[in-house]
């Protein structure tokens, strides 16, 4: 059967959209602003011959004028496609790779793509993943409780589906409630051929009932939904059923059809149940029971329930089911509907019902049209990108990636490049090469090694702009911050090139019986594990001193900054580094431990998270290898008086916002003496308020994204926790009103020890300002932290500032300047911030064998030795 629904004529037929569901295909010719020019709903499974005929007819008869693009609902984007994407061979490969995860949907979609690309070869074809809406699922919800190696190898996780429908219904809900979608807490149920339930918190999907495949969750028309996995194992065991039979049974013969033995169509079942058919009654009762269960479960992810939203053909058009579901949710405050039929989206609950129940017409097709237009606009804006951003609201980002090693621009989530992780043999080979390169590198003179590092400095200056742009595109910092990073990195290289002979000179000791000297020998192969926040600077500050010392280095970069890492490796190669002296390992984190355990690796230096630090330190310790750890920080920034308040505020701004707050020595806790507090907070908030979000490559932008939408969500959750527990946001407090990983610059006051913001590192543009009465209270608050990296004290009374600085438990304190880094100054911390020092004369000795050589005269008396 084919039907044409609710067309409203529009002037400009521009895009053709194809919305394949499991039981029907909808074709729509759509103009901008949700205008439907023509549409056809073919109520047959896509892929069936009747559908092919109807598609043919639609294209030949209805699509009379050229279309600008064709958009397709892509039920499963898999790990690679987390945004709408223009179809090319790579995209098709990515879709084919996951076709088996959605067997009802993806094979017919691929056929449709094939057919329409042949018929309309000159227009762009855009796939819009249903899974994109859920790409920012919190890790806790996205994780499947399966063995880690399986999860990693097969990208097993919860993806979530029906995203186009949810995106549409979320916006409509905002319209109906007169509220911004990004402030809403909702449970939404899409009930169609497939069915799912989603918890939406602040406009973002935070949990959803379908997981890796659209077979999970509530029972559906012909699909089982979640069942005991043990049942499947048992059915497959001893060949009770074949895999093919089980697959067919779960996808085609279960759910409402399996329960009723009658029909998969709720309309038939309602009629049959009314006439007393027991199986039909059981089917509907079980369906509504499971829905209630899932909706109640979803509500546990929310702080409050602003509305229950029902959509999908069944949610929209099957009042009997709505009534039973609402009646079963009294525990949530949901009351039975007071209205049956609706002509347009709206509430079915009473006006004074505590929880509004809204029913929204499913319009995946129109959402698809919007996304297709957006992809076209993005393409025109930027040449021809592969991916485009969704319109607002932007669902949060993803930990989902095709490869765990990928450059994804946090400004627009464009996947710039993905890298397959190096196989184990390649890693072993690289370790061997580094080991083999060591003896000859050790035996070159310090001057030769310094000359190489000097050439690297020169190349870095020459390539500064190119490198800065790469860093900005890869991790999102403002372009001027990237330039500062590259400049500092070049100066570090130059410092070690110039100073190496002095820093590595022998160290004679006073020894009464002969001559004693400490010489600085290299140790061998050293592994550096480096983070993404300063992908060039952190790497250089590890590599430069070790190379001039004579160690060979292996570099494991963060998995989101592989291109910066490779650009650096190239730079050292171009500077003349012999093979094996400087090698980048593009490997997942777990490989690090195998490398440290390797016989020939003599030490490891890590800058990164506490967790990674603990593991690296532990592995190195177990293998009796030296390690240097530079971990998190929660640096105090203490303002003692109002002398130069403008300067202190300026310093606070720089200290907190450099690198968008994603620095271990960021001014994370501002501690201000009471008399100055109010003026300080007002001035700081004023400065923060004026920041302008935008493309970080653009010089005019002053607010950059944080490194990923996941990171943005974590920050917003930390802030929200503080606000919920009584803190105040003087400015900011949530996501910035800009697509991508943007967070509002925020000033929090009234933070107390029960709040996450008190103990956790806030890795973004969030300033927490504490009021203290005097210097003693400032010091005791400063030291009330598990971390001890840097710190800053502001006062024109230098002795007073020094007295405070001397009592701060940290590795570095700066007076009258935010904590910073320079080549000649040691960098490192104490407590949970780690141990060891980088940079300066101290950094170069961390992986040196400070070997004692004692020379005695040939006639010196031989005494009894100790030791
Ligand atoms: N008025 C209705 N029109 C179409 N389908 C309805 C209606 N009421 C209930 N349904 C149910 O919704 C299902 C179709 O939902 P739909 O979302 O179009 O399917 P698909 O999974 O193909 O996207 C039908 O199988 C039927 O059970
Ligand atoms: C994901 C899914 O099940 O889609 P549909 O409901 O259209 O079959
Ligand atoms: Mg559907």
Automatic annotation (TrEMBL):
Keyword DNA-binding part of the UniProt annotation: no
Keyword Nucleotide-binding: yes
Residues binding ATP: 190-194, 265-267
A Pfam family this chain is assigned to: Acetate_kinase
Keywords: ATP-binding, Cytoplasm, Kinase, Magnesium, Metal-binding, NADP, Nucleotide-binding, Oxidoreductase, Transferase
Protein's job: Catalyzes the formation of acetyl phosphate from acetate and ATP. Can also catalyze the reverse reaction.
Family: Belongs to the acetokinase family. Belongs to the aldehyde dehydrogenase family.
Complex and partners: Homodimer.
Protein name per UniProt: Acetate kinase
Source species: Pseudofrankia inefficax (strain DSM 45817 / CECT 9037 / DDB 130130 / EuI1c)
Gene name, Swiss-Prot/TrEMBL: ackA
């Amino acid at each position: 059967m084919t039907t044409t629904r609710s067309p409203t004529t529009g002037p400009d037929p521009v895009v053709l959209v194809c919305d394949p569901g499991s039981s029907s295909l909808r074709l729509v010719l759509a103009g901008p602003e949700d205008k439907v020019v023509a549409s056809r709903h073919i109520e047959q499974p896509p892929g069936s011959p009747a559908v092919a005929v109807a598609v043919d007819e639609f294209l030949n008869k209805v699509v009379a004028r050229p279309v600008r693009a064709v958009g397709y609902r892509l039920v499963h984007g898999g790990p690679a496609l987390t945004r709408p994407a223009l179809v090319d061979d790579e995209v098709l490969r990515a879709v084919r790779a996951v076709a088996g995860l959605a067997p009802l949907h993806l094979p017919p979609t691929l056929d449709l793509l094939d057919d329409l690309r042949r018929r309309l070869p000159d227009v762009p074809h855009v796939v819009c993943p249903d899974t994109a809406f859920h790409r920012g699922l919190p890790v806790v919800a996205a994780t499947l409780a399966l063995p880690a190696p399986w999860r990693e190898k097969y990208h097993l996780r919860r993806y979530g589906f029906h995203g186009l429908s949810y995106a549409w219904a979320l916006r409509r809900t905002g319209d109906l409630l007169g509220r911004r979608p990004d402030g809403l807490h909702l449970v939404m149920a899409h009930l169609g051929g497939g069915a799912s339930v989603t918890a939406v918190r602040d406009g973002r999907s935070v949990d959803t009932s379908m997981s890796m495949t659209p077979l999970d969750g509530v029972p559906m028309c012909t699909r089982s939904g979640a069942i005991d996995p043990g049942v499947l194992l048992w059915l497959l065991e001893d060949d009770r059923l074949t895999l093919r039979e089980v697959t067919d049974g779960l996808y085609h013969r279960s759910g409402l059809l399996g329960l009723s033995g009658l029909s998969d169509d709720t309309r038939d079942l309602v009629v049959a149940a009314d006439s007393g058919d027991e199986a039909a009654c059981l089917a509907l009762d079980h369906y509504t029971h499971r829905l209630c269960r899932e909706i109640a479960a979803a509500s546990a992810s929310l702080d409050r329930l602003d509305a229950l939203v029902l959509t999908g053909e069944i949610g929209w058009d099957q009042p009997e089911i709505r009534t039973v579901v609402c009646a079963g949710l009294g525990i949530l405050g949901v009351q039975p509907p007071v209205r049956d039929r609706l002509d347009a989206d709206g509430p079915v609950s009473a006006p004074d019902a505590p929880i509004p129940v809204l029913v929204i017409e499913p319009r995946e097709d129109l959402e698809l049209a919007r996304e297709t237009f957006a992809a076209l606009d993005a393409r025109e804006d930027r040449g021809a990108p592969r991916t485009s951003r969704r319109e607002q609201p932007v669902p949060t980002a993803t930990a989902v990636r095709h490869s765990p090693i990928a450059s994804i621009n946090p400004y627009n989530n464009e996947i710039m490049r993905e890298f397959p992780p190096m196989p184990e043999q390649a890693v072993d080979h690289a370790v061997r090469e580094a080991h083999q390169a060591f003896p000859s590198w050790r035996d070159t003179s310090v001057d030769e090694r310094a000359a190489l590092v000097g050439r690297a400095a020169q190349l870095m200056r020459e390539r500064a702009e190119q490198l800065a742009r790469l860093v900005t595109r890869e991790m999102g910092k403002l372009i001027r911050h990237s330039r500062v990073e590259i400049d500092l990195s070049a100066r570090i290289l130059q410092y070690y090139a110039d100073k190496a002979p002095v820093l590595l000179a022998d160290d004679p000791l006073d020894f009464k019986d002969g001559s004693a000297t400490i010489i600085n020998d290299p140790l061998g192969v050293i592994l550096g594990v480096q983070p993404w926040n300063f992908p060039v600077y952190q790497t250089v500050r590890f590599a430069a001193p070790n190379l001039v010392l004579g160690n060979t280095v292996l570099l494991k970069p963060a998995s989101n900054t592989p291109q910066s890492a490779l650009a650096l490796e190239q730079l050292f190669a171009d500077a003349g580094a012999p093979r094996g002296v400087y090698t980048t390992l593009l490997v997942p984190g777990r490989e690090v431990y195998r490398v440290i355990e390797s016989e020939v690796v003599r030490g490891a230096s890590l800058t990164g998270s506490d967790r990674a630090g603990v593991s690296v330190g532990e592995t190195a310790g177990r293998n009796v290898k030296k390690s240097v750890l530079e971990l998190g920080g929660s640096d105090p920034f203490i303002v003692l008086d109002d002398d130069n308040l403008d300067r202190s505020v300026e310093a606070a701004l720089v200290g907190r916002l450099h690198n968008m707050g994603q620095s271990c020595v960021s001014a994370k806790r501002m501690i201000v003496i009471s008399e100055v507090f109010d003026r300080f907070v007002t001035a700081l908030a004023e400065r923060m308020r004026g920041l302008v979000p935008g493309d970080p490559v653009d010089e005019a932008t002053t607010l950059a994204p944080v490194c990923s939408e996941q990171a943005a969500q974590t920050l917003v959750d930390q802030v929200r926790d503080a606000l919920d527990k009584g803190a105040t946001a003087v400015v900011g407090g949530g996501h910035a009103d800009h697509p991508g990983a943007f967070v509002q610059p925020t000033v929090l006051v009234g933070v107390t020890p029960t709040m996450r913001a008190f103990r956790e590192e806030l890795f973004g543009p969030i300033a927490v300002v504490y009021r203290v009465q005097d210097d003693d209270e400032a010091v005791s608050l400063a030291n009330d932290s598990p971390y001890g990296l840097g710190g800053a004290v502001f006062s024109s009374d230098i002795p007073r500032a020094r007295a405070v600085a001397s009592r701060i438990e940290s590795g570095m304190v700066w007076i009258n300047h935010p904590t910073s880094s320079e080549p000649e100054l040691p960098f490192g911390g104490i407590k949970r911030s780690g141990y060891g020092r980088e940079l300066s004369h101290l950094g170069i000795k961390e992986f040196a064998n400070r070997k004692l050589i004692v020379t005695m005269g040939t006639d010196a008396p031989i005494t009894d030795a100790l030791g």
